[in-house]
Every structure is written in C-alpha cells, then in structure tokens.
Amino acid sequence: MTKKEVQDPFVNTAFFNEIVSRTVLYLRTGYPVHFVGPSGVGKTSLAFYVAKQLNRPVTVIRGHHEMSNQDLIGQYVGVSKKQVVDNYIHSVYKKEQEVKPIWINGQLIEAVKKGHVVIYDEFTRSRPETNNIFLSLLEERVLPVYGNGKVTAIPCHPDFSVIFTSNPEEYTGTFHTQDALMDRLITIRLNACDEKTEAAIIQHRTGATEKEAATVIKLVSRMRIYGKGHIPSLRASLMIASIAKKAGIEICPNNVMYQQLCLDILLHHVKLFFPDEEERTVQELILQEMLREDEIH
Fold first, then answer.
1. Distance CA 44, CA 23 (A)
2. For the chain, which has fewer Cβ within 10 Å, the N-terminal or C-terminal residue?
3. What is the maximal distance between C-alpha atoms in the chain?
C-alpha cells in the first residue's frame, strides 16, 4: 500500500553533498536516478533526503518478488451492490438492483497524476516483467492502465520523478534488470563513506561523542579489511553505538559489556570471511583488533 514516510535522519556531509547536488539536477531535468550499492551504505536514506530537496509529496514502493502490475496500477477487487425496493403502493412491488465492479488504484496512480517523487526501493527484488511498466512511464511519460475499461492510460504530471535503489546483482534475491530499463536510468554507484563522514553520521544519529564514534569506526573498519569489501556496513557501526548509548554501556575496548556487544553484532559478518575457522577463533580475532591501541585517539 502506498504510503508517505518520514525520512531517517540524514547527515549531508561533504562526502554526500556533491552526489545530492548532481541527483537533484538530474531529477529536475526529467531524468530518473538509480542508486546502487552494497547493503547498509545509505541508499534509502539518501533517496529520502534527495526527495525532500524537491519539495514534492513522496510515494514509497518496496520491491519484492511477489509484486505485480496490479500492485502498481490497480485491479478490480469485487463488486458493490445497490438494491432499491419500492413498495409504497401496497399493490405494486418494484425492485431494482445495480451491480458495479470495484476498482482499487495501485501505488503509482496518485503519484503519476499529482507529480510525486517515487522512491522505488530495492526495485531489482521485483520481477523484470513487473518493472516493464516503467519503460513507457519513463520514455513516453504515460502510465498504461490495464484492465480498467474506463481509463487506458494516464499522462504523467510534469513534476513526476523516480529514484530507484538496488543492491548489486550478485546479491541473493535480486533479478537481472532488463537493459532497456537500465538504459533509461542515470546510475550512481555508492561506496562506503569515508571515516570522517561515518563518524559524523554516528554522532548525529546516536549522540556518541567524537572519541566514542572513532572507537567504534576503527574496529568496524579493521573488520572490513578482512573481507576486502563493505561488510560490516555502516549499519553495524550504528547498531553498536546506538545500543551502547541507550544502555549506558561505556564505549571502551577494555569494557567487558562493550566487548560482548561488539561480538554479538560483528561475529556473523566476520565469520563469513573465515568459513572454516571455529567461532571461538573468530571471536578472539575481533577482540584482538578491538584491543589494538594504534590509530584510536
């Protein structure tokens, strides 16, 4: 069901500022934008922040493999009956019945008519045949409506725009997107932000001090080196800092409660890098990296 959502707090640092400026420019000139990047890099929060800059209503669509054209356009869901019985004159009995089909609009109808900013989150989790509808929507600026005899197409409002987000195709649960659709999108690849930006986000979102944020980031960054990628993501850093602040756990490598918190959040991710190692060995590795004194200020 289409809904307008309140965006997560977003920190527009220098790292993101240039991306935001470019994206707003593309959308205002009529081109859809596609943010692609690993899980936890901040694609959705960035999409909400960009949408806010356009000062238009926002419609959010969450991609999933069961989504169909009916979800996006609409469908008949039954009938309504109206019956009138006229027995005002005792000797005359009159009965009239009217049956009308009930049409429920899909998620795109209002957005197209009124010029919303659509955030299509994780759109590659929807089947390609479902996303085909965006071909005519983006190219011809017309939304085809199938099954509704009264309306066959809806012209797009001039302010209508779309921000797509997705994980890379190698992620489990994603479908290969047809080239014809990708050819119509401006794809911006998002990588892990730098430590300065990550620290600003953690401080803003959790209330951690500069020193506390640095302590969390150094540990998570060290774990990423083993995987040569983005995991554990910024999301893991936020979880550690947020729980520690809310629970009153001192963010200190020598604090046993803090150590256990980090193990609970990071162990699953780090174990993926060492599938043949015992869990205890991976735990010891995390603790060793946590207790390293260099680079933490």
1. 14
2. N
3. 100
Using alpha carbons, list the distances in angstroms from residue 22 to 54, 64, 95, 159, 174. 13, 28, 65, 17, 27
Model pTM? Answer: 0.75
Q: Which residues contact 204 (CB under 8 A, 6 or more apart)?
A: 9, 11
Query: CA torsion sign, 294 to 201 to 244 to 209?
Result: positive
What residues are paired with 119 via a beta bridge?
Answer: 60, 163
Tell me the two tokens of residue 155.
């012209």
CB 59 within 8 A of CB 107: yes
pLDDT tens string for the chain (297 positions)? 344 444 456 777 778 889 999 999 999 999 999 999 888 788 998 999 999 999 999 999 999 999 888 888 876 565 566 666 565 566 656 666 666 766 587 889 999 999 999 999 999 999 999 999 999 899 999 998 876 666 678 899 999 999 999 988 766 667 888 899 999 999 999 887 888 888 998 999 899 999 999 999 999 999 998 876 668 888 899 999 999 999 999 999 999 999 999 999 999 999 989 999 999 999 999 999 999 865 444
